[in-house]
Amino acid sequence: xxxxxxxxxxxxxxxxxxGGATFxxxxxxxxxxxxxxxxxxxxxxxxxxxxxxxxxxxxPAAPKTLKRRPPLPRxxxxxxxxxxxxxxRVALKHADARRKTRVVTLVASRGFVLHPMDWMxxxxxxxxVYAPWIDWQASLDGERHAPQEKLTAENWDEFYPAAxxxxxxxxxxxxxxxxxxxxxxxxxxxxxxxRLALIELMRFGLSAEDAPFFKSLSxxxxxxxxxxxxxxxxxxxxxxxSNDGGPDDPAAELAAFISEGKSGFIRRRTTYTPAKLKSxxxxxxxxxxxxxxxxxxxxxxFGITEPEFIGSWQFGADNNADIxxxxxxxxxxxxxxxxxxADALVADGGxxxxxVLHLTPRLDSRRKRALVRLILKQTNYxxxxxxxxxxxxxxxxxDDLSNGSALAALCSxxxxxxxxxxxxxxxxxxxxxxxxxxxxxxxxIDKVVAAGMPPAAPSLSVLRLNAALAxxxxxxxx
Amino acid sequence: xxxDLKTIEALAPDQASLxxxxxxxxxxxxxxLEKNEQQALIWGECQGSGSNPYRxxxxxxxxxxxCTCPSRKFPCKHTLALMWIxxxxxxxxxxxxxSPEWVNDWLGRRRKTTPPAAQPIAGAAAKSIDEAARTDExxxxxxxxxxxxxxxxxxxxxxxxxxxxxxxxxELDQWIADQLRLGLSGFVDxxxxxCRRIAARLVDMKxxxxxxxxxxxxxxxxxxxxxxxxxxxxxxxxxxVLLAKAWRAAPDDPELKRLVSTSETREQVLANPDAxxxxxxxxxxxxxxxxxxxGLVSHSTWLLDLKSATPQFAVLLDYFPAxxxxxxxxxxxxxxxxxxxxxxxxxxxxxxxxAERMGEVMSGAWPDFSLSATKDPLATHASYQxxxxxxxxxxxxxxxxxxxxxxxxxxxxQGADDPQGIALPIAGAVNQTLLGVDLAATAALWDGARLDxxxxxxxxGRLDLS
Lengths: 478, 466
Fold this sequence. Notes:
The complex is a heterodimer. Helices cover 55% and strands 3% of the residues of chain A. Chain A is built from 23 helices and 2 strands. In chain A, helix 7 runs antiparallel to helix 8, helix 15 (306-312) runs parallel beside helix 17 (335-348) and helix 20 crosses helix 21 (419-435). The longest helix of chain A is centred in the first third of the chain and has 18 residues, at 39-56. The two termini of chain A are 63 Å apart. By secondary structure, chain B is of the alpha+beta class. Chain B has 14 helices and 17 strands. Chain B has helices spanning 5-11, 15-23, 77-88, 101-110, 129-133, 144-182, 184-189, 191-204, 208-215, 217-222, 229-249, 254-260, 266-271, 379-387, and strands at residues 32-36, 41-46, 54-59, 65-67, 94-95, 277-291, 296-305, 313-321, 336-343, 352-360, 394-398, 401-405, 411-415, 423-425, 439-446, 451-458, 461-464. A 5-stranded mixed sheet of chain B has the order 4-3-2-1-5, covered by helices on one side. A 5-stranded antiparallel sheet of chain B has the order 8-7-6-9-10. In chain B, a hairpin with a 4-residue loop joins strand 6 (277-291) and strand 7. Residues 112-116 of chain B have low confidence and may be disordered. At the A-B interface, helix 1 and helix 3 of A face helix 4, helix 6, helix 7, helix 11 and helix 14 of B.
């Protein structure tokens, strides 16, 4: 299309928009084709020519504002093989964010990452290997690149937030003092939300040397930061606030909700039992106090140490109070108090052991596994396994399942007609799909299918993916 | 397999279903017939009247079933035919170690409700499988005079239709002239009512296909920005003018007849010796499912010829009533199969039927079509428009490029290095992940204003974008 045709087309278009005859405005060559007929037919012919010209001769021009995003970075692990992607998509299909993270963690534990069109990480709970993608999503300018050199105060801003978080977490494990000094130097210049996330990293490699820094945060402008610093300080056995014992002291108020007693005929020992509450208002207040107080302050109210207090607490007397104290221990208890509570409750078993689920963020891998094994053994509380968080993927052996009666309970739920039981079994199978070794996963599929579960039931999807991941590994190994 | 003819007879909703099923029991109707005895499942793909085969699965344990056909009879004739084959010729069903994904999908969905075993329909007695199986011998042999009478009636009907369509196109011409006189600005604003009215007139005058196309103009305009709508209106109406003129010049042209009045039947296309046939490996690029104003849902499955030296496409197009509900897809994007396709005759053959399916093909990268970033990305579109200017959606295989965004958040495809300053705006929202992926090749549909992405090849492998 030449220039005069382009000009003619533009004029004709303007005329047609408002309405009217365009024959006189048309380029000469077009007039020759369209002319010699009725005015209506001339207009239709011109319309046909214009339509064809618009379709064939014009090309959409790129707007000047077009922006190109930086390339999506390659991750450190290989992508899940194409063959396994349909299985993965089934496993992700109806999963909520928590379950998706489990699936992704399982895949990462077997040495693969997901295809970016199947899943993109949306939060910090994803395995560390996805940090470059988290940062890629967060980057707007595309200017910064994750540097390879060590993180220092000077190159702090050159790191993307997720990459910086991972570097700092690792540094806290290997050089905790250096990491603390970096956080101390840079955190104050960050917004409250980022500051909180940075100080949260201090939980790695926590030591008494960190106490002065936490104390300095008592004047921080963010309430959340002050509270977190207080809890971290409490984990170190330091009292976060002054215990004047007055009416405004929350530890004293909380202590009033706890009855001190004695038990044993020969060796009298002190016991602590939650006091009977008289109203929902009291229950609410007690929950608030457990949330705000630190374990060290509460134990001090009774003049004993944290492990002594935990050892004397009468678990099983009030389930709500047990949960509240478990949360308090997880948030502010010392490492000794946490392990003491977990070991004692897991050794005793029974329902009170389930409160250890609230401690899982603070437990080491061995204790978490012991808890899962206990839950599997106590078939009465099998569903509680779904509450377990932060547990490693792919370690549960067939013996762990078959030694207790968990397997029999699962098979009977699958074979039965009780819909609620079957739904419960579905959830447990999904969780075991995450925890199990590939061999266990394959065996469990056979077992529940033999018990009557349809082979392609969605609740088997994580187990199938788990088993298939190992098959793939063994194929590539040979 | 636990089927006997008595069970099938009992399950059938009526005698007509049984009779129809009987005709479908021929092995040639079923490109795929498989079973898994462990799972008590039989499944198959039945080539029905649509361009996509219907997928049927039956649980032989509890007689549960699922078919992708739009029939409102339960079980449909395809399901009954599959049961019938299982009962009478179980050897036709090949043993499969595992069930395909679509079967698994169905199994997964029915797990939650666990319906009771399918029961015979109450009151649907008086059906006989013997009667259904009996060949129709009652049809009397027509005498010559009757044949002549019938053919004469057909010719008369065809002539009447042609005259009615011709009158319809006269009316359409007048309507287009009126729109130009009144102004396209008003047309754009009132396109919904105006198009509905002329479409209804065209239906009355037997220009049904054209009416359906005009009914879709408002929704195509709605998808564009305000400043683009007048140009789009010119394109839409101009194409109608060209189509009407072409039909007047050759009213018996099968392509034009299909676009203006009615389409040939599947059988007519398959029997047409002039219809283009291509036996090749095909990859399913993607699917487009659109609800139309006339109450139909159009379901198009776009295919890429993997053996051709240049990018060649085919589309399997089916229509079914929206009231039939959501249909399961016959093919999944990325599926590959070996098949012989028969194309509906046209200047640029795209619409096709699967005449014969030979089996599945291993997945992999697309062939190297030597796509050049320096060439005009819309050259294929221009050649389609030169041959058949009434085409609305043109399939393209774009050279290496990437997706970019403008300040309004609209996605644009642009060729690597962009030698000509061309960028093609993308229809709908763009997956943000795509913005960071270099695309080695992109399959898409171009409608003159928007690019509808189907699939792409990239460093991350095949990307399903439909």
